[in-house]
């Protein structure tokens, strides 16, 4: 029995909650996964996993063993990277999750500079706005706009993104162009609902000595950034969003900026990853590249 391979299989079963999911994730036959775990439990002399018809969960011994396995496998990967002649050219698969707008408009168009620099890293990128369980879903790193909600993750600040207040020309023709905060009382907004926290967001303005929140009447509430923009373009009211996400709509004229003299608070962009991935060279070089990308003039994150 290859004990390190058995450890990898065991950790994926714990993280994904099932033998079949782990086998698919590791591209192994399901029978091989079952055999490896039986051999590992026999070798250790303890039961590591509790199996039911619906799920697989670690026993108390399994939980303790999982924590040791994660650390050992991380140490092994980093030790091999340090002493390998290829240590300056990291390899392997890197799984990343990010909002669809950031991915489509900022990261993916610039990726050729990263993949040419690190040609042996294979990227698996998911684009969505939903919360992601990095451990259970096997994700190495996520990008998120707004405050970091999970304090158990390592957070690397990337940028402070400028935001705008926006509306469609059709909406403004129908409702009028607001000139002051008092004018907003006669207007509507599209409400954004966070899929991570369930929090509902109205409009915010950074005035001289305070942060002013404004909630307007609404007809539509959405929980995705693309839906947020679509509802605004369809004339359902005002929105506030990062500048990078509005550049194409502004250029096409499907959205226009309103109340430009009333600044909107900036939004933090952060890279998050589990503590046990902190020393991973693949994660390090990718996050370092993101820092470089976000600081580049013309990145679109600032006006």
How would you characterize this protein structure?
- It comes from Pseudomonas gorinensis.
- By secondary structure, the protein is an alpha+beta fold.
- It folds into 3 domains: 81 residues, Winged helix-like DNA-binding domain superfamily/Winged helix DNA-binding domain (Arc Repressor Mutant, subunit A, Orthogonal Bundle), CATH 1.10.10; 91 residues, D-Maltodextrin-Binding Protein, domain 2 (3-Layer(aba) Sandwich), CATH 3.40.190.10; 103 residues, Periplasmic binding protein-like II (D-Maltodextrin-Binding Protein, domain 2, 3-Layer(aba) Sandwich), CATH 3.40.190.10.
- It is built from 9 helices and 15 strands.
- The strands form 5 sheets. Strands 4-3-5-15-6 form a 5-stranded mixed β-sheet, covered by helices on one side.
- A hairpin with a 6-residue loop joins strand 8 and strand 9.
- Helix 1 crosses helix 2 and helix 1 crosses helix 4.
- The longest helix has 24 residues.
- The mean pLDDT is 86.
């Amino acid at each position: 029995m290859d004990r390190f391979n058995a450890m990898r299989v065991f950790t994926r079963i714990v993280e994904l909650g099932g033998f079949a999911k782990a086998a698919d994730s590791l591209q192994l036959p399901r029978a091989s996964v079952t055999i490896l775990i039986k051999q590992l439990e026999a070798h250790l002399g303890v039961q590591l996993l509790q199996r039911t018809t619906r799920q697989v969960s670690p026993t108390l011994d399994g939980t303790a063993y999982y924590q040791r396995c994660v650390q050992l496998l991380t140490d092994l990967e980093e030790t091999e990277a340090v002493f390998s002649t290829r240590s300056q050219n990291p390899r392997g698969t890197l799984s990343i999750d990010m909002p669809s707008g950031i991915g489509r408009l900022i990261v993916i168009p610039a990726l050729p500079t990263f993949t040419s620099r690190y040609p042996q890293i294979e990227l698996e990128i998911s684009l969505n706005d939903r919360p992601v369980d990095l451990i259970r879903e096997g994700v190495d790193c996520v990008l998120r706009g707004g405050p970091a909600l999970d304090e158990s993750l390592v957070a690397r600040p990337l940028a402070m993104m400028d935001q705008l207040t926006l509306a469609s020309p059709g909406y403004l023709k129908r409702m009028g162009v607001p000139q002051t905060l008092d004018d907003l009382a006669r207007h509507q907004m599209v409400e954004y609902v966070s899929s991570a926290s369930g929090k509902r967001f109205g409009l915010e303005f950074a005035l001289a000595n305070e942060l002013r929140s404004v909630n307007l009447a609404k007809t539509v509430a959405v929980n995705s950034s693309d839906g947020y923009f679509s509802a605004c373009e369809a004339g359902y009211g005002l929105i506030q969003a990062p500048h990078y996400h509005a550049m194409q709509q502004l250029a096409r004229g499907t959205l226009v900026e309103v109340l430009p003299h009333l600044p909107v608070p900036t939004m933090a962009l952060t890279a998050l990853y589990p503590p046990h991935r902190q020393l991973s060279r693949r994660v390090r070089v990718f996050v370092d590249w993101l820092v470089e990308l976000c600081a580049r003039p013309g990145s679109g994150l600032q006006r």
